[in-house]
């Protein structure tokens, strides 16, 4: 059980600025600027030259524990906890040494006791927008359907306007993924220093997370529109054309064509990505680029062949295959992700850790 923390101590620990450790100088892959900047300042990064192109080491390395500036539990409200993602996040918060879940809102489960959380007894509440805005918490997680988050955000903003404090909001829906006033937070791509200083965070989608991580290292080598075929377990959802994640990937990284499917397994996603190249490459060249780009990352693994059965219930993304066709100008890359973990709840916790001043991987099983 977590003991109550004196208000004066909690308040002082909520936002400690500056928290961000310096990033290696140079142009880091900012998701919002891929369309404008497809090159890297090689002079400011360690580089390896192969076949006339420059492969960089990780320009946005993990903070891990070096950026930790807070050891006071953060009071958390989870709004919309009935779904699979909400339940996965509750399991992670239960094991996190500093996350103190205080409120769980669900209209369908109101009055029932929350199961699977051992730090304190919590009863589901059916909180109105106005009631949510008046909660005394340090962080909100909005695990609500697309299109319904704005009233909650507006009410929280209004309630906090004159209080001299600003809680962290992490939105798991797509509502703010295209809003430049929010931080689109894919930690392996977005500057971690930016996430660490943000209070309004949009959590990327599951398909979009895996696809962007599988494309970003060779975005400079793309010769034509990549095609992505994604297969999700039935805890996900599909739409054959104009999928939200197609728009999301295209907005933040590069234009893609995305074709999703749903299969018979419960959780886990497999992506097969066909990428035309603007020069001849070998499979070994491509693999080395990915190993360099994700050096030090604990939640991105470069493997021989990614399989859904090995990624289920894990917290990382696996990327591999790197098959080059006979011309040397087309590569097929495969990636897998657990859509309820790194595709949603794990990434949410990773972003909360950064924004609240905890070690980046605190509470995340590294397996």
UniProtKB/TrEMBL annotation:
One of its GO terms (molecular function) is NAD binding. One of its GO terms (biological process) is L-arginine biosynthetic process. Keywords: Amino-acid biosynthesis, Arginine biosynthesis, NADP, Oxidoreductase. The active site is at 206. Residues 75-197 form the Semialdehyde dehydrogenase NAD-binding domain. Pfam families: Semialdhyde_dh, Semialdhyde_dhC_1. CDD domains: AGPR_N_ARG5_6_like (cd24149). This is N-acetyl-gamma-glutamyl-phosphate reductase.
